[in-house]
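User: Please look over both lines:
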Amino acid sequence: MSHITSAFTDAVHDSQFCFRRLLKAMSEPGTRVELDRCSGFGAMMPATSQVLLAMADNSTPLWLSQSFLQDNAATQNIHFHTGAATNAAPEQAVFAVVASADMPTIKFDELAFNLGNEEYPDRSTTLVIEATSLSSGQRFKLTGPGIKEECCIQLGKISPDVNNILMDQGKMFPLGLDLIFVSGEQVVAIPRSTSVEAM
């Protein structure tokens, strides 16, 4: 049974819109942006689906957490609209997408996501993590490039493993993982150049 649904109404312009919003989020860490050009695929949040529509294509290996792998609507729409494979090994994934429901049980330190290398640091994995909220929960202070002095954000309820990733952020730069947190249509990015402190 097909679960294919519509994506962007205007594929070119909507994709460019989302790409520009994501570029703003990455260049201004901690700044919340809104992606409101389509609904989510299956159980995926709208912003998660739009990140993939704007950033993934048939040359983009994706790693999906278990809930998304078992969600036929999510996987069928990703394959149909982007052409991206969704069965990449963690170390090969360009994007790794984590459902909020899966976050508490994932042992990130066992997954060996690509941290890049000194010759090609930009080849690291970008983690797209669905958060319970971007306006409540644990507070974090961000400092680094693109931030004037400091920026404070909230990321809802996160697992100890995700907290550990945040605390290590910026320490390996230029290597490391880029992080994109989404909640509904909202997005906040924490690139590998950003330092994070719990508040």
In short: The beta strands are 33-34, 62-64, 95-98, 126-130, 139-143, 151-154, 178-183, 186-190, 195-198. The longest strand covers residues 178-183. The mean pLDDT is 96. The CA atoms of residues 101 and 195 lie 26 Å apart.
